[in-house]
Every structure is written in structure tokens, then in C-alpha cells.
Amino acid sequence: MGQPSPVQTDHRKPRGRRLWFDLHSWVGLKLCLFLGFVCFTGTLAVLAHEIDWLLHPEIRVAPGPERISWGAMLAAARSAHPDWEISAIEAPEGSRFAARVRARTPEGRLRFVWVDPYRGQVTGDTHWFNAHRFLRNTHRHLMLPVLYGVPLVAALSIPLVITLVSSLYIYRHWWRGFFVRPRGDRPRRFWGDLHRLAGVWSLGFIALMALTGTWYLVESLGGGAEPPAKLQAGQAQGDAGPASAAVVDRAVAEARARWPAFEVRVVRPAGVGGTLLIEGEAEAVLVRPRANAMAFDVAEGRWVGTRDGRDMDVHQRIAEMADPLHFGNFAGLPVKLVWFVFGALLTTLCITGVYLYGLRIADALRSGQRRATRRRAAEAAA
């Protein structure tokens, strides 16, 4: 995490701090570009929805006094694209975001239809492969086949753990470094102090990324948890088809009445297995919306069953909380911004670490040249 003092780099202790420093430098140098790229794309992925908001005017809406019903949003999307198959309606990311409707065209292309949640108007549609999908796929598996890309990226958690542990060992009394101002008398000293300062402030975040990355590696190698239990399918007669807007509103009202703490985040009206599925947030914290769900008969909106995130076992809870903790998408934009800042610090650590290594090599070359010059002068004088 930083350049050690002369005491820390004492060559008389090859198996002490010097060994940890050499390990830290070697891992950082070999993987700097790869790790830096993954950190950079992950940092941008934290604000991927906000980036799409900036890029696509269809997503931007003006806040209104109150939001329309879920059924009204479904009706608006169907009215604009009656021949498109709608699979899900997702709650807006913020007060100035449109609601996102996942749809498939008759040709089989995936599209997002955007609906103003205050006025019930379709603002437009965009391609499925947006900035969010590009950044997530790049960060998660480098656009490689998932079977190979995910474990390749997740394996970076191992060198991340090595750099974390080694930095604590080579930077003595690191807890005193939170408010140490970088010294500017020499470039190497300044960048070394800056590297240490960024590293100290990022310790907790690095540990979190290492832990969640290790979990992704375990998942990719077959150690993932079973998905949340499936809810019983409704007893639809024949092919009931997708739920109507009226049935959606009836089911949402029933869900709120049965579970007052339940906040609807996703409505799936496609009627798979005769079931209308509603997912959301409730008492279970740090889980994805799918962990809390209620199922209703697609034809009449009768309640079928409930899935409570609090009923999951430890293995499932770990699986569900990995994504919210990794990307900071569990408490709105303020937490996302914190994750973005620390992600930028982690990316900076990759860059400054390599730069410091280059400065150290340059200093060593200059020192060698000065010694050679003095030796030649001494030989000439003799």
C-alpha cells in the first residue's frame, strides 16, 4: 500500500517486512493493468443507471405529486406497443427516473420501454444493451463467455487479499495515517505518501471487495447457494395469458394489505405458470428484490403464496447480499456515491502503485550511475 521507511526495507530481514514488501510490489506490478481495468469498470458500473439517465432523454422525467398505479404503467406500455410481450415492470431508480418496462418485440429483440410514473405516458424505448449492461458485463466477465469470464475476474480477489494483508504488514502503525499530509519535497515521497493515504482510507472497502469477489469465485466454481424457493403456481384454467392492468392493481393492493412492510419494486405480469409475481423490499435487509415476493393467480389476482427473505438459510443470505454490498445499491444514490468514491480510490491505488515502482527503479538507476561515476573518478585520481 505504500513505500516503507528505511527501517521497513532493512535488507538484513529478508523474511520480514522486506519479503512482504516484495510480494506486495510483485503482485501489484504483474496485475496492475488487469486489476485497474476491473476496478475502473466496476466503479463506473456503480452509477451505470445514472449514466444511462444522462445518455437517454427517454429515462428523464419531471417529478410529480404522486405516482400512478402499477396497472396504469402496464396499460401505458401495452397501449404504445400492443404487439410487444411485456415480462416485467421495474420501479424507477429515483424521483427523476422513468419506470422501466422489459419487453420483447415480435422479432425477438429485447427492448426497454420507459413510462413516466407520474403522468402515465410512454417517453420512448431503448435497446436492452445500454451503458448499464455494457459496464456490468465488462466488469463481471470481460465480455467473455460467463463460464470462463466470471471465475477469471473473480480470481482477482486472491491478489486483492494478498495486497491488503501485505500492506498492513509493511505499513507500520497504519491506523495513524488517516490524516497524514503527503510530503512534497520529492516526487517519490509525495506519491508514496499519497498511495498510503488512499490505501488507509480504502482498507474497509478493499476488504469488502475481496470478500464479495471471493464469494463470486466460489459461486462460479459450483459453490453457489440454491435460489430462493419457488412460489406455488396459480391454478389458472387453460392458457390465461398475461395479467391485465386491473388484475395487477388488485394484486398490488392485496400484497400491501397482507404485508404492510412490503415495498413493491418489480411486477412480473407475464403469467408464467398462471402466476403473477410481485417482488420487493421488506424486513430482510441487504437482499435482492427477488428474495421477498408474493404470487397471485394471473386470471383473478387471488393470493397464492409468499416468499420472505428472512426465511432463507445462511448460505442463501450470503448469495443474496453479495450484489448489494459489492455495488452499493441498497440505500439509494448517497450510498452509490460513497461506493463510487472508494472505487475511484481503489483504481488510483493500482495506478500510483505502478508509478511508485517506476520511480523506485529510476532512483536505483540514478544511484547506480552516481556510484559508477564516483568509482571512475577515484580510479582516475589513483
Task: Give short descriptive properties of this protein.
382 residues; alpha+beta; 3 domains; 11 helices; 13% strand; disordered N terminus
Description:
The chain is an alpha+beta fold. The chain has 3 domains: 17-48 and 140-220 and 337-381; 57-129, no CATH class; 226-312, no CATH class. The chain is 51% helix and 13% strand. The protein has an 8-stranded antiparallel β-sheet, covered by helices on one side. β1 and β2 form a beta hairpin. α3 (70-80) packs antiparallel against α9 and α6 packs antiparallel against α8 (203-223). It is elongated and about 105 Å long. The chain starts with 16 loop residues before the first helix and ends with a helix. The relative contact order is 0.13. Mean pLDDT is 89; it is low at 1-14.
